[in-house]
Amino acid sequence: ITAAADAWACGAAALPKPWKPQKPVLPVEGMRNVLITSALPYVNNVPHLGNIIGCVLSADTFARYCRLRNWNTLYVCGTDEYGTATETKAMEEGLTPQEICNKYNAIHADIYRWFDISFDYFGRTTTPQQTTIAQDIFQRLLARGFLLQDTVEQLCCEGCQRFLADRFVEGTCPFCSYEEARGDQCDKCGKLINAVELKNPQCKLCRGIPVVKPTQHLFLDLPKLEERLEPWLEQSWATGDWTANARYITRSWIRDGLKPRCITRDLKWGTPVPLDGFRDKVFYVWFDAPIGYLSITANYTDQWERWWKNPQQ
């Protein structure tokens, strides 16, 4: 308290001079370097106050605090643009998925500018850098044996002549009987779902009843990681700042045993899968979208790895 009172009595002139980072902002030896990201807003809607308060504003407040502390700070964000939600919105508005993304990316950027959100860079996930980095991560997983192939039974709409991935199908949740569950998860109970598990499934496009057909897909072999993941989690829970909710959800996944997770989809709108036999498929958005944090930084600076592969700073 005494130190604070003394500092206040000295006035603003005694404060250290504000740090003016170089452009682009890169880690600086000997300084505290802080990389901040907001959860990437999805591109198929107009953001509202809840979206901004939920993730963007809190990160912006922290970025401003870090800059006031003279910490070398980079704050990036951008729109999440692949996936079935984009395709369905494009169909609703009579536009292509790329046109929908261009439209709503501009709307998002304008609204955040109006609110004076202090992004150093606001990008998007439909870029060449996203494709390059996502495919590189995929190739590394493949080379290290963390992927497997399997034939899966998948819902197919014969009227639309397409497999129904994720949000193209709705039905009753097999776990809690919620009647508007999607083909990838239930928003009421939070359980992950395979579309064929839905009761009373319907094609979201034509409301027809789909049939089950086999198709080949690629999976993350998550069970291979269990033995390494459990001790890491125990250490991280003991030393990190995990929320009670995050601990509970993670523990439930470990308790039930990790399952292989499909990372490909029978869609056109997405990052192409660079493997023979799967080149007519794209990556599932939840494999692809988190890589957007890296690719958006890569669009900001070609030295992006100094932020993402530099734990010493």
TrEMBL record:
The keyword tRNA processing does not apply. It is an enzyme of class 6 (ligase). SUPFAM superfamilies: Methionyl-tRNA synthetase (MetRS), Zn-domain, Nucleotidylyl transferase. Residues 34-311 form the Methionyl/Leucyl tRNA synthetase domain. GO terms for molecular function: ATP binding; methionine-tRNA ligase activity. Keywords: Aminoacyl-tRNA synthetase, ATP-binding, Cytoplasm, Ligase, Nucleotide-binding, Protein biosynthesis. Pfam families: tRNA-synt_1g. The keyword Protein biosynthesis applies. It catalyses: tRNA(Met) + L-methionine + ATP = L-methionyl-tRNA(Met) + AMP + diphosphate. GO terms for biological process: methionyl-tRNA aminoacylation. Its EC number is 6.1.1.10. One of its GO terms (cellular component) is aminoacyl-tRNA synthetase multienzyme complex. It comes from the Eukaryota. This is Methionine--tRNA ligase, cytoplasmic. It comes from Cochlearius cochlearius (Boat-billed heron). The lineage of its organism: Eukaryota, Metazoa, Chordata, Craniata, Vertebrata. The gene is Mars_0.
